[in-house]
Amino acid sequence: MNILAIGAHQDDVEFMCAGTLARLKKKGHRIFIATVANGSCGSEEYSVKEIVRIRKEEARKSAKLLDAPYYCCGIDDLMVDNIASIRIKVATILRKVNPDIVFTHSVEDYMIDHVSTSTLVKDSCFCAPMPNFPAKGKPIPHTPYLYYGVPLEGKDMYGNKIKPTILIDITKEIPFKGKMLACHKSQRNWLRKQHGMDQYVETMKDWSRQLGKFIKCSYAEGFRQHLGHGFPQDNILNKILK
Fold it and tell me: Strands 30-37, 101-104: parallel, antiparallel or unpaired by DSSP?
């Protein structure tokens, strides 16, 4: 199957679902990674032009570890919104990949690019099969399975806990997940200044460890499945990985 993970920014997929992607890759499935934003605000050291180039290369390097193509809609950071022009770009990626399963952000998250990406991906999964929707490429044959990652720290903007309904054991994949995340070297200084996250990879491990407690394993990733009208209702992720 074709598996597509779409994050807002270039390190979001790694935090959200890199371990699950690694397990799916081991099963023989094809992995694709995309971002909506171009990373333009992710630096206090570089110009917009420089950091966009750097983050694109970091994303490609990380995706290459999964033999995955990397796509980017090219929207400036903090300019991501669920509007028609960007929805067309996301649907165009969906048509290019023809995914069976899609991963993206939770709609309850701490920053607007993540929230907008979540709704963009959900709506684009619905639009991409429609022949008259003006995205490029051949309409995909069916609406894909859609899974939302759990936001970092597992809470919404009010501090309410968001409990995943699906948990995937990634204990064996945690070194690989860390290797993918470490490709995004430009983000360590940025996150240290902006969010007080000095230990970039260790922060990821701490969060994965917290999720692992739900299913009594060392490390896990958590998801909720989109079960709205028109979307597949069975949980194919559990069938593949359990």
Answer: unpaired
